[in-house]
């Protein structure tokens, strides 16, 4: 998959590296601001009570 993506990116090696970095930053931003907030109600990290 990474080889396919590398071949599809335009430009030479520096431009491909910059485009790949931009794609990684975009993916992290989508996860951080869209996906993780959707799952936050289902994951209760604040409730750490241990029951016996």
Compact summary:
With 52 residues, the protein is an all-alpha fold. It has 2 helices and no strands.
What does the overall shape look like? rod-shaped
Secondary structure tally: strands = 0
Determine the strand fraction and express it as a percent band.
Answer: under 5%
Supply the number of helical segments.
2
State mean pLDDT (0 to 100 scale): 89
Keywords:
about 50 residues; mainly alpha; about 65% helix
Describe this structure as you would to a colleague.
The protein is mainly alpha-helical and 52 residues long. The chain has helices at 2-8, 13-39. The longest helix is centred in the middle third of the chain and has 27 residues, at 13-39. The model has no long low-confidence stretch (mean pLDDT 89).
Could you outline the blueprint of secondary structure elements for this entry?
Blueprint (H helix, E strand, L loop, with lengths): L1 H7 L4 H27 L13
């Amino acid at each position: 998959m990474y080889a396919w993506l590398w071949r599809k990116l335009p430009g030479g090696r520096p431009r491909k590296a910059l485009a790949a970095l931009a794609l990684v930053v975009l993916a992290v931003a989508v996860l951080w601001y869209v996906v993780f907030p959707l799952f936050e109600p289902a994951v209760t990290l604040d409730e750490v009570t241990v029951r016996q």
